[in-house]
């Protein structure tokens, strides 16, 4: 056991405690997988990361990412939160342009947009889900077939079944059967494109947001997202970078979304996550957001 530097970073928010927190142990050396997993179970956050020296020549640092239920090859909000913690602890990138993170899935490029960070979406493999699995997922979510406009299996190191629904209210009204989703062993991300609401819808949505955020509606977004991950020990993830990276690669490519848009996630959990999505001139998709260091100190591990 030794004392190790530690930070807890809130990701995809400029306001502390409104995003998705990640626990970051800044020195994971001399720990084994069982110790990584035990600490991740103890923090009980959607992800906990451990920083290590890189083994790839182009990387600035390496991370291992653990949920309460197991290791993740890649995850989005831990990428930005770990990068923020590494920089705050004095990390110096080799490049003046980018920071390069090594994780199980490979090298991830991160850029600084002023005080904000954005990661380049990893390569995506996508396939059509089987009709049988899609029907089971729809049943577990309480969805009718007509509410699902499109569906894709999205794998960028983190595997999600992505569903595009008919309207934002369908996303926000979901009350999933988390036990059924866990038994199916599938993480599910649901999204809906924001439409110009009627006055009645505006009043209803404003009241709902006021209840969720203590009286403060947090502005409009282009895409509303929720993420259900009971299969990895988290019933609903507040704000999810890996899912949004996969959704962006799918939805932009297939013409559902423009090359730049803003995502809202976490409303149903009393959070107010915001993710920026951009496809650059070279075709890379960047997922960005603000990060706030909420806890800084040491842990004994």
Write out key terms for the chains shown:
301 residues, alpha+beta, 18-stranded mixed sheet, 7 helices, 25% helix, 37% strand, globular
Could you give a quick summary of the protein structure above?
Helices cover 25% and strands 37% of the residues. The protein has helices at residues 33-43, 76-88, 131-141, 168-172, 178-184, 199-212, 241-253; strands at 3-11, 20-25, 48-52, 61-67, 70-72, 98-103, 106-113, 116-120, 125-127, 148-155, 159-165, 188-193, 223-229, 234-237, 260-265, 273-279, 285-289, 291-300. The N and C termini lie close together (5 Å).
Task: Give a description of the structure.
The protein contains seven helices and 18 strands. It has helices at residues 33-43, 76-88, 131-141, 168-172, 178-184, 199-212, 241-253, and strands at residues 3-11, 20-25, 48-52, 61-67, 70-72, 98-103, 106-113, 116-120, 125-127, 148-155, 159-165, 188-193, 223-229, 234-237, 260-265, 273-279, 285-289, 291-300. A hairpin with a 2-residue loop joins strand 7 (106-113) and strand 8. The radius of gyration is 19 Å and the shape is globular. Mean pLDDT is 92; it is low at 200-218.
């Amino acid at each position: 056991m030794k004392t190790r530097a530690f930070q807890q970073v809130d990701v995809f928010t400029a306001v502390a405690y409104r995003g998705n927190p990640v626990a970051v142990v800044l020195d994971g050396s001399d720990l084994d997988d069982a110790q990584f997993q035990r600490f991740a179970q103890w923090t009980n956050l959607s992800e906990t990361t451990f920083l290590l020296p890189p083994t790839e020549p182009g990387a600035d640092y390496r991370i291992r990412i653990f949920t309460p239920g197991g290791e993740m090859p890649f995850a989005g909000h831990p990428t930005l939160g770990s990068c923020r913690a590494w920089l705050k602890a004095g990390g110096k990138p080799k490049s003046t342009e980018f920071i390069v993170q090594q994780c199980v899935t490979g090298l991830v490029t991160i850029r600084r947009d002023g005080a904000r960070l954005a990661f380049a979406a990893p390569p995506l493999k996508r396939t059509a889900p089987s009709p049988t699995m899609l029907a089971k997922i729809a049943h577990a979510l309480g969805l009718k077939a007509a509410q699902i406009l499109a569906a894709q299996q999205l794998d960028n190191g983190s595997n999600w079944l992505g569903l595009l629904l008919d309207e934002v209210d369908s996303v926000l009204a979901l009350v999933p059967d988390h036990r059924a989703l866990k038994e199916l062993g599938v993480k599910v991300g649901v999204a809906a494109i924001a439409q110009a609401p009627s006055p009645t819808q505006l009043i209803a949505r404003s009241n709902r947001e006021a209840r969720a955020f203590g009286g403060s509606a947090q502005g409009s977004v282009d895409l509303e997202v929720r993420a259900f991950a009971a299969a990895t020990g988290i019933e609903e993830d507040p704000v999810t970078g890996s899912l949004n990276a996969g959704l962006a690669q799918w939805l932009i490519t297939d013409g559902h979304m423009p090359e730049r848009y803003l995502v809202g996630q976490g409303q149903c959990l009393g959070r107010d996550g915001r993710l920026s999505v951009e496809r650059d001139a070279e075709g890379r998709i960047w997922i960005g957001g603000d990060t706030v260091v909420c806890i800084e100190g040491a842990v004994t591990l």
